[in-house]
Structure prediction request, 488 residues.
Amino acid sequence: MAFGWKLYGDGKTPPLGEAVAPDERLSWPLTVGIGAQHVVAMFGATFVFPLIMGLDANLAILMSGIATIIFLLIVQGKVPSYLGTSASFVGGVAAVRAQGGDSGDVVGAILVSGIVLALVGLLIQRAGTVVVNKVLPPAVTGAVVLLIGFNLAPVAAATYWPQDQWVALATMTFVIVCSLALRGFWARISILLGLVFGYLLSLLLDATAGQITSFDAGVGDVTTRDRVNLDAVGQADWFGLPDFTAPSFSVNFSLLVLPAVIALVAENAGHVKAVGEMTKRNLDPVLGRAVFADGVGTVVATSVGGSPTTTYAENIGVMAATRVYSTAAYYVAAIVAILLGLVPKFGAIVNATPGGVLGGITVVLYGMIGLLGAKIWKENRVDFANPINLVPLAAGIIIGIGNVNLTFTDNFSLGGIALGTIVAVAGWHLARALAPAEMKAALYEEGGFAGGTGPALGSTGGHRAGGGHRADAGGADPSDVDRANPPR
Prediction:
């Protein structure tokens, strides 16, 4: 099934307890409206993360729409999902830029990871979903996700927050309040609301308090300037193509971002499981296709300088709230995103986001990414009294968070996220191979390791490998499904 949607009933909103299947649709006006909701749900993260990674936000929005269409075609319309900008690559990108890499190096390194992710998808499709947990058990996956998030702490603390500490504090507080005080859809877009709040607050302070003297990340020094510089907005066209960037390739840079593949495999598996529970369908047979499609989407997006993509749990939350799982709505959302990407003036407004605003947002987002690793451990009852889990993962996490480096030659070294991931993955499997029988047996008491993909990869216990959404088939309260969860 690609485009042959059946009309659901009379085309109106489904009654309580009923749902619109992926191969069905409501009337086209209602479908367009739901598609617009999907655009808003993915919107904040899809342009915030390119800003953080130093990539073009307009291009990211445009390519997210194209990647979504590619994804839906590859999974043959069986997995309704939107592909927005992935947060899993942020740490690796920060490492690439810290070593002098430019945007071409960044997208080239991510493109390589996209190829690897696509190959992993083919492997899963051929060998079955059980291979995921055999190679990447929950203990290891949680450690990698945790060190990816916490490795970013110095970026938030040293690059964004110092640019305007009071706006950063106000934005952070606003995001926290919105994520807890609001309900349903509004809680899901708390990051977007926080960005708008911080942006407007910065404009107000420029008009009332005047210029600010603080660290300017653009020049790497303290300057006196307006918080918001809108000069580029006036010069930008209303319609036109975004700026493209050709990828360049380096083994060293590629290794810095490659660990994100582990997080993306877990995230995709979790989302497919969640959608399967909501739609009451077994989607395990298409998990490999979904991972492959995510990899292909990332390759296509980064081949022209766009941001990496991943399935978005924010949009799964919209489905939980509306009980409409129609892929037709996702095609609508993709087309709207493509059209937005062709408005350079919109991109210029986004790119003018003050550093202080990003400071307030990143301290929340980076911490949440890291804590999602701990969530994976908790859901799978990972036992840290077992040295198999404790010793190698402890070493890998400290290496990743502390940016420990291992230098091989003048031109090649491993450090931070890349080295931490290698130690965590290889060290865990080595420890398991060398451990006595009783320690190995204890692993099978942990949830999710013995068989299947386990709770960390999307059981009904409520998972989001990249965000923690609960996806109850019975129509969970949407205000409880997605509250206080970050975009990816």
